[in-house]
Amino acid sequence: MKATLIEVAPRDGFQPIGPFIPTDDKVAFVEAAHAAGLRRIEIGSFVNPKAVPQLRDTAEVLRRTAHLPGLDAQILVPNPRGVALALEAGARHLVYVISASDAHNRSNVRRDTADSTREYGEVMAGLPAGIRVRLNLATTFDCPFDGRMDQALVLDRLARMLEHRADVEVGLCDTTGRADPDHVAALSAECLRRFGASGGEGGTRFVFHGHDTYGLGLANVAAAWHAGITGFDAAFGGLGGCPFAPGATGNTATEDVVWMLHRMGVETGVDLDALVRLAARAAALPGASPGGRVRAAMTGACAA
C-alpha cells in the first residue's frame, strides 16, 4: 500500500504569516522538503499581492527550485489572471480553486460558484497542451458562513465543473477543519463511485485536503484513506490557515500524517526524521502558528 503526500506549507502554510519570509528561506524550505522525499510541493500562488503579500515572490521561488530532480511544483491560481501569470512564470501544474459554497466563493474571488465554474471552463478550453490541472473544491464539507454543506449540492456542483475537463485531480478541501470522519468517508466514497478512482486511469483522481482546527485532521485523513483516497495534502509543522475562512487554523501536519501512515503499514517515500527537523524549523518562523503532535513527541519540544 502506498500513499502520496502533497506538501502545501510553502503556499497554504506560509500565506497567513505576517512577517515576510525571505525568498532564500522559502527556496531552502522547498529544497529541504524535497530532500526529505516529498516530490509534490505546492510552492506558491498567483493571487493579488495586496490580498496575500507573503506569496508575492512565487515566480522567483518557482524559478529557483526548477533544478530539483523529480519536483512536481504546483501553483495555486484563483482566476484567469492568475493562470496567465503562472504560465508566464513557467508553471506546468496549476491548482485552480473554486468553492462549493457561494458565500465563500464570493469572499474568496468576489463572484458566485456558477460564475467561477463558467470562467474555469473558459480557462480549461484555452490551456496550452501539457499543462496539468488540479481542481481544488474549497468548502467541500463546511463553509465558514453557511455551515455544513449539503452533499447533493456539492456533488452537483462538482459534476458541472468536471464537464469542462474530466482528466483532473480534485482536492476535496475541508477548508474550515470542521469536517468529521463520517462525513469525509461518505463524500469521498461517493465521489470515487460517481466520478472515478483515486490513482486510477480513465477517471477523475481525488485527494483530501484537511485542517486540524478541531483536532480531527488525522482522523479525517484515515477516513479518506479507508474510503479509497490515496493522496493527501499536508503542511510541515502544521502551518496554515485560510485568510478567507474566519477561524480556520493550520493544515494537518505532514509529519503527523506520515507517522500515522507508516504505523498503518502504508508507504509514503518520506524520511520522517528529516521531515521532523524541517517541521521544527518551520515552527520557529516569526509569526507562525504551528500545530501537530509528532514534532513535539520526537524532539521533546513544546507543541505550540
Explained architecture:
The protein has 304 residues and is of the alpha/beta class. The chain has one domain: Aldolase class I (TIM Barrel, Alpha-Beta Barrel). It contains 12 helices and 10 strands. The protein has helices at 9-13, 23-35, 58-65, 80-88, 102-109, 113-126, 151-162, 181-195, 217-227, 254-263, 272-283, 294-299; strands at residues 4-7, 40-45, 72-77, 93-99, 132-138, 142-143, 147-148, 169-173, 205-209, 231-234. The strands form 2 sheets. Strands 1-2-3-4-5-8-9-10 form an 8-stranded parallel beta barrel, surrounded by 8 helices. β6 and β7 form a beta hairpin. One of its GO terms (molecular function) is hydroxymethylglutaryl-CoA lyase activity. Keywords: Lyase, Metal-binding. One of its GO terms (biological process) is ketone body biosynthetic process.
